[in-house]
Amino acid sequence: MSIALIAGLLLAYGGMLALCLGLERHYKQVWKRPSSTLRRALRAAGWLALAASFAASVLAWGWAMGPVGWFGLISLAGFALVLLLPYAPRLAVVLAGVGWPLLGVLALVGV
């Protein structure tokens, strides 16, 4: 698996998580106090992360298969969030942060 593909998956997961936390209901599940400014920032960051995920998918697969792969990545990320948010919302947030150091280690190893 290429680094661009893993980065695309992490960005898709982070973007979908940010969009979910941009909603008051899911925000309350994790932090209890909804702040409208932070929720707006999370929504903007979510869309930017999804756009970056699209760019990483195109980098990994090219223009022919990149958009198709991107839809697969955001579907996979959304499915993971559907399974995690009702039962372990804080774990969903932790997983978004754990993936980036792991990606750095994989990049250093040269995968």
Question: Features of this protein?
Answer:
mainly alpha, globular, about 110 residues, transmembrane helix, transmembrane
Write a structural description.
- The protein has four helices and no strands.
- The protein has helices at residues 3-21, 24-31, 36-84, 89-109.
- It is globular, with a radius of gyration of 14 Å.
- The relative contact order is 0.19.
E-strand count: 0
User: How many domains would you count in the coordinates?
Assistant: 1
Stretches with pLDDT under 50, minimum 5 residues: none
Give the class from helix and strand content and strand pairing.
Answer: mainly alpha
Outline: globular
Largest sheet: none
Strand content: under 5%
How would you describe the oligomerization state of the chains in this entry?
A: single chain
Q: Give helix % range.
A: over 70%
Topology pattern, helix = H, strand = E:
HHHH
CA-based gyration radius: 14 Å
- Distance from N terminus to C terminus (CA atoms, Å) equals 7 Å
Mean pLDDT, all residues: 87
- Tally of alpha and pi helices: 4
Write the SSE topology.
Blueprint lengths: L2 H19 L2 H8 L4 H49 L4 H21 L2
Question: Quick gist of this model?
Answer:
This protein has 111 residues and is an all-alpha fold.
